[in-house]
Design a protein that fits this description.
By secondary structure, this protein is an alpha+beta fold. It has five helices and eight strands, in the order βααβββαβαββαβ.
Length: 187
């Protein structure tokens, strides 16, 4: 294991930088994608997302020079749809996902979205807890949504994300994360 791959204890504050995803990040993104998803997205799918313009927001999370997670958002009218959130297994429990979802929620608000939605595996209780912290509530089930396993997806929505109250929720969530999170601006 190289020095860059050393993972500190989960209790240790981290300095995490969230940068807009670029082609140069895709090799690392695909490695994480293959580790965490039974049916990983392809290089072509990520490239099409990156080429989609301002209707898509993608960030990678970096600790030092290492990509440790990523997340994406699709903007449609006044709704934001979180399409993918993944954290390398060794870095799970370090609040990387919380930082990424926070950045996407902030980007959605900045783009004028009023609501956020996503699908999550019904068996993925840790992710559901994370999303509930951001105000997501269950709204339905998509039967057999995950074709590779036949597992159902829980549809979750966070509404009224454009309100001052939701802005306060985001500020509280950010303040509860030890260490620093720097978000580089999208161009």
């Amino acid at each position: 294991m190289t020095a860059a791959a050393v993972v500190p204890p989960a209790s240790e504050p981290l300095d995490v930088v969230l940068v807009p995803m670029r082609r140069r990040h895709l090799r690392a993104v695909l490695r994480i994608e293959e580790l965490v998803h039974p049916r990983p997205w392809s290089m072509g799918l990520f490239l099409s997302e990156l080429a989609a313009g301002p209707s898509r927001v993608w960030y990678v999370a970096k600790v030092g020079s290492q990509v440790v997670g990523y997340a994406g958002l699709m903007l449609v009218a006044e709704d934001g749809h979180i399409t993918n959130v993944a954290v390398a297994p060794a870095w799970q429990g370090h609040r990387i996902g919380r930082r990424l979802v926070h950045a996407l929620a902030t980007a959605a608000r900045d783009a004028g979205a009023r609501n956020l939605t996503l699908e999550v595996r019904v068996s993925n209780a840790p992710a559901q807890r994370l999303y509930r912290a951001f105000g997501f509530a269950p709204a339905g089930i998509r039967k057999g949504y995950y074709a590779e396993t036949g597992e159902d997806a829980l549809i979750m929505w966070a509404v009224d994300i454009d309100t001052p109250e939701y802005g306060q929720r985001l500020a509280q969530l950010a303040a509860a994360v030890p260490g620093t999170t720097t978000v580089e601006e999208r161009r």
